[in-house]
């Protein structure tokens, strides 16, 4: 047996044990619903109502802040608002936007697309809260480098209640889960999926890359290493260029396919709404569509995991709430726009119909090929860019949490970066499904301590938001006098 399979087999009991806890499910109307999904959804709905539908009422203001309308020239930080948003998006916009949406539509039906978009809008509120708290409690080390994340606001939340030891435990738990998740979700899985797509377009088993996954992994590791050695400034600079390019390529390709089938657009939209609200198969079908749509949205935009709070902490600002506004645009771009483009193309092309026998990336590729025959090559490019951008952003998340656990020393940073690049090579050349399952569970385990902290600090966020809006109103009233 090959060594990677031996390692994977040995890790299976641990992987299954951890995943069975994190992804524990309950049955409702013959459907299995993961408790972690309920945990994330309830938080999104709660914060939307608690903050007075901030995701809708201040959507325009968030765009204005992103454009620099309310910037302060002498703000503390390392990167711009746009770079912070792109760094966060580069981690969330990945293969799930292509393959995951296809699974949601093929299993839950077209109605899943409606609920996916709805959940994306609710998730904006959770993202606002965690980004705002991340910046409010960020810290500066002895090298004048700013870092932050749920670790810091979790500790503060419990310390205020005179439970500092519990705060240290919860912060450490989050950091540990983040490091473990980074290796798999941010390294192994992305490299593996990028290699599989590259293998398809280069001739499959008869092509140049057949049995050369290590070579592809080495190539990606070098590209990633060239960026992450420069820290958040380099990562943000690359993300600020790569994310817009890959998003535009994918969205334009989707618009072209939709335009080719323009006569089917009204029917497709009608089908999505009808199947979401009035499915022919009754309540069970409605719940199936709702579950798949919400699950895809929640797992795609990472709202509630706390990861985006780390990305936004390095932004140049003195006002946490203003960057929280920018942060909440992430789920809208990731889920409402990019995921919905995928869903619309699949529904309009009709490739999702039951009995087609295809799913995932293949289903998306088939749908796009209905309008663009050479789309598999475009898909390969976007998959590569999606994987690359996800790697560099998640590497930073893991680095921040590693230094939180083991100390902010240069040796620790270099060891972590070297190991991360090594796992990229391993991910492209080995089949480690059980290890990836374990690290996926670690990623979603981040949501448990993170959301507890969000609930504990919710009154504080509401107060900060009220003060911010009052100051904003005063500035607006004074503006005509200038």
Overview of the molecule:
With about 475 residues, this protein is mostly helical. The protein contains 22 helices and four strands. It has one domain: Amino acid/polyamine transporter I, CATH 1.20.1740. Helices cover about 75% and strands about 0% of the residues. The protein is globular, with a radius of gyration of 22 Å. The N and C termini lie far apart (about 75 Å).
SS class:
mainly alpha
Termini separation comes to 76 Å
Sketch the major β-sheet.
Answer: 2 strands, antiparallel
Query: In what range is the share of β-strand residues?
Result: under 5%
Average predicted local confidence, pLDDT: 84
Report the CATH architecture: Up-down Bundle
Query: What's the helix-strand series?
Result: HEEHHHHHHEEHHHHHHHHHHHHHHH
Cα-atom radius of gyration: 22 Å
**Percent range of helical residues:** over 70%
What is the number of domains?
Answer: 1
The coarse overall form would be globular
Number of strands: 4
């Amino acid at each position: 047996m090959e060594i990677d399979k031996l390692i994977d087999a040995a890790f299976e009991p641990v992987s299954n044990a951890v995943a069975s806890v994190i992804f524990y499910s309950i049955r409702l109307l013959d459907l299995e619903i993961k408790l972690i999904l309920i945990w994330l959804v309830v938080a999104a709905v709660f914060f939307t109502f608690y903050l007075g539908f901030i995701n809708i009422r201040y959507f325009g203001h968030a765009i204005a802040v992103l454009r620099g309308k309310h910037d302060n020239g002498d703000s503390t930080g390392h990167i711009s608002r746009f770079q912070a948003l792109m760094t966060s998006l580069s981690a969330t916009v990945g293969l799930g936007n292509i393959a995951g949406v296809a699974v949601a539509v093929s299993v839950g039906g077209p109605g899943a697309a409606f609920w996916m978009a709805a959940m994306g809008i609710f998730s904006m509120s959770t993202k606002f809260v965690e980004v705002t708290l991340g910046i409010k409690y960020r810290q500066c080390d002895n090298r004048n480098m700013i870092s932050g994340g749920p670790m810091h606001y979790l500790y503060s939340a419990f310390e205020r209640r005179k439970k500092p030891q519990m705060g240290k435990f919860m912060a450490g738990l989050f950091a540990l889960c983040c490091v473990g998740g980074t290796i798999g979700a941010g390294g192994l899985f992305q490299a593996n999926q990028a290699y599989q797509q590259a293998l398809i377009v280069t001739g499959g088993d008869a092509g140049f890359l057949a049995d050369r996954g290590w070579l592809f992994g080495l190539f990606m590791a070098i590209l990633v290493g060239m960026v992450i050695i420069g820290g958040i400034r380099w990562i943000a600079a690359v993300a600020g260029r790569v994310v817009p390019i890959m998003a535009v390529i994918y969205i334009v390709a989707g618009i072209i396919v939709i335009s080719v089938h323009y006569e089917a657009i009204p029917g497709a939209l009608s089908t999505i709404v009808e199947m979401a609200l009035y499915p022919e198969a009754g309540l069970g079908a409605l719940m199936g569509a709702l579950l798949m749509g919400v699950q895809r949205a929640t797992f795609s935009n990472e709202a509630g995991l706390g990861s985006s709070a780390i990305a936004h902490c390095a932004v140049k600002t003195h006002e946490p709430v203003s960057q929280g506004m920018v942060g909440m645009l992430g789920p809208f771009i990731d889920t409402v726009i990019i995921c919905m483009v995928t869903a619309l193309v699949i529904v309009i092309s009709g490739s999702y119909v039951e009995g087609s026998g295809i799913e995932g990336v293949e289903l998306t590729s088939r749908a796009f090929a209905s309008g663009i025959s050479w789309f598999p090559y475009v898909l390969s490019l976007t998959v590569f860019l999606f994987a690359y951008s996800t790697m560099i952003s998640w590497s930073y998340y893991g680095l921040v949490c590693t230094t939180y656990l083991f100390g902010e020393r240069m040796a620790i940073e270099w060891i972590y970066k070297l190991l991360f690049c090594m796992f990229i090579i391993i991910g492209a050349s080995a089949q480690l499904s059980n290890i990836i399952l374990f690290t996926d569970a670690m990623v979603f385990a981040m949501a448990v301590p993170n959301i507890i902290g969000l609930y504990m600090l919710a009154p504080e966020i509401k107060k900060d938001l009220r003060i911010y809006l009052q100051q904003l109103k005063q500035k607006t009233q004074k503006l005509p006098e200038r």
